[in-house]
Amino acid sequence: MKNEDVATSSIEQVTKRVPSVGLLGLAIGTMAVSATLMLLNKKTWANFVGLWAPTILILGTYNKLVKTFSAPYSEEQRLQHGGSASILKGPEELSRQSPRPLI
Hints:
Blueprint: H1 6-16, H2 20-39, H3 43-50, H4 52-68, H5 75-80, H6 91-96
Helix pairs in contact: 2-3, 2-4
Protein backbone atom coordinates (compact mmCIF):
# COMPACT_ATOMS: atom_id res chain seq x y z
CA MET A 1 0.00 0.00 0.00
CA LYS A 2 1.10 3.52 -0.68
CA ASN A 3 1.31 4.95 2.86
CA GLU A 4 2.19 1.79 4.79
CA ASP A 5 5.48 0.20 5.73
CA VAL A 6 6.80 -2.94 4.02
CA ALA A 7 5.56 -5.35 6.70
CA THR A 8 1.99 -4.02 6.62
CA SER A 9 1.91 -4.01 2.82
CA SER A 10 3.11 -7.61 2.61
CA ILE A 11 0.58 -8.75 5.23
CA GLU A 12 -2.24 -7.03 3.34
CA GLN A 13 -1.15 -8.61 0.05
CA VAL A 14 -1.39 -12.07 1.64
CA THR A 15 -4.65 -11.22 3.43
CA LYS A 16 -6.31 -10.17 0.16
CA ARG A 17 -5.97 -13.72 -1.16
CA VAL A 18 -7.98 -15.30 1.68
CA PRO A 19 -11.61 -15.79 0.56
CA SER A 20 -14.11 -13.99 2.79
CA VAL A 21 -16.54 -16.89 2.63
CA GLY A 22 -13.82 -19.16 4.06
CA LEU A 23 -13.53 -17.06 7.19
CA LEU A 24 -17.32 -16.92 7.55
CA GLY A 25 -17.52 -20.71 7.19
CA LEU A 26 -14.77 -21.16 9.76
CA ALA A 27 -16.62 -18.92 12.23
CA ILE A 28 -19.88 -20.82 11.74
CA GLY A 29 -17.95 -24.08 12.11
CA THR A 30 -16.54 -23.01 15.46
CA MET A 31 -20.05 -22.13 16.62
CA ALA A 32 -21.26 -25.60 15.62
CA VAL A 33 -18.33 -27.27 17.40
CA SER A 34 -19.00 -25.16 20.48
CA ALA A 35 -22.69 -26.16 20.47
CA THR A 36 -21.73 -29.82 20.08
CA LEU A 37 -19.30 -29.60 22.99
CA MET A 38 -22.00 -27.96 25.10
CA LEU A 39 -24.39 -30.83 24.30
CA LEU A 40 -21.65 -33.29 25.31
CA ASN A 41 -21.48 -31.48 28.68
CA LYS A 42 -17.94 -30.15 28.09
CA LYS A 43 -18.80 -26.56 29.02
CA THR A 44 -15.24 -25.31 29.50
CA TRP A 45 -14.18 -26.50 26.05
CA ALA A 46 -17.44 -25.22 24.54
CA ASN A 47 -16.76 -21.74 25.90
CA PHE A 48 -13.14 -21.86 24.76
CA VAL A 49 -14.02 -22.83 21.19
CA GLY A 50 -17.05 -20.52 21.14
CA LEU A 51 -14.84 -17.52 21.78
CA TRP A 52 -12.99 -18.13 18.53
CA ALA A 53 -15.99 -17.09 16.39
CA PRO A 54 -15.87 -13.33 17.16
CA THR A 55 -12.13 -13.25 16.52
CA ILE A 56 -12.52 -15.01 13.18
CA LEU A 57 -15.37 -12.66 12.21
CA ILE A 58 -13.18 -9.64 13.06
CA LEU A 59 -10.43 -11.08 10.87
CA GLY A 60 -13.04 -11.49 8.11
CA THR A 61 -14.04 -7.85 8.51
CA TYR A 62 -10.39 -6.78 8.27
CA ASN A 63 -10.01 -8.98 5.19
CA LYS A 64 -13.01 -7.31 3.54
CA LEU A 65 -11.75 -3.82 4.39
CA VAL A 66 -8.34 -4.59 2.91
CA LYS A 67 -9.95 -5.87 -0.28
CA THR A 68 -12.38 -2.97 -0.56
CA PHE A 69 -10.41 0.05 0.60
CA SER A 70 -6.84 -0.69 -0.44
CA ALA A 71 -4.88 2.48 -1.01
CA PRO A 72 -3.96 3.00 -4.67
CA TYR A 73 -0.32 3.28 -5.65
CA SER A 74 -0.65 6.47 -7.67
CA GLU A 75 -2.88 9.52 -8.05
CA GLU A 76 -4.00 8.34 -11.51
CA GLN A 77 -5.04 4.96 -10.13
CA ARG A 78 -6.99 6.65 -7.33
CA LEU A 79 -8.83 8.92 -9.78
CA GLN A 80 -9.66 5.92 -11.99
CA HIS A 81 -11.44 4.28 -9.08
CA GLY A 82 -13.68 7.26 -8.35
CA GLY A 83 -11.54 9.22 -5.93
CA SER A 84 -11.51 13.01 -5.95
CA ALA A 85 -8.38 15.05 -6.50
CA SER A 86 -5.96 14.95 -3.59
CA ILE A 87 -5.18 17.99 -1.48
CA LEU A 88 -1.51 16.94 -1.62
CA LYS A 89 -0.81 17.88 -5.22
CA GLY A 90 2.24 19.08 -6.99
CA PRO A 91 2.35 22.47 -8.76
CA GLU A 92 1.77 20.90 -12.20
CA GLU A 93 -1.40 19.20 -10.96
CA LEU A 94 -2.72 22.41 -9.42
CA SER A 95 -2.31 24.31 -12.68
CA ARG A 96 -4.19 21.61 -14.65
CA GLN A 97 -7.26 21.59 -12.41
CA SER A 98 -10.03 24.08 -12.98
CA PRO A 99 -11.05 26.01 -9.83
CA ARG A 100 -14.32 25.07 -8.13
CA PRO A 101 -16.85 27.79 -7.36
CA LEU A 102 -17.32 28.54 -3.67
CA ILE A 103 -21.05 28.38 -3.05
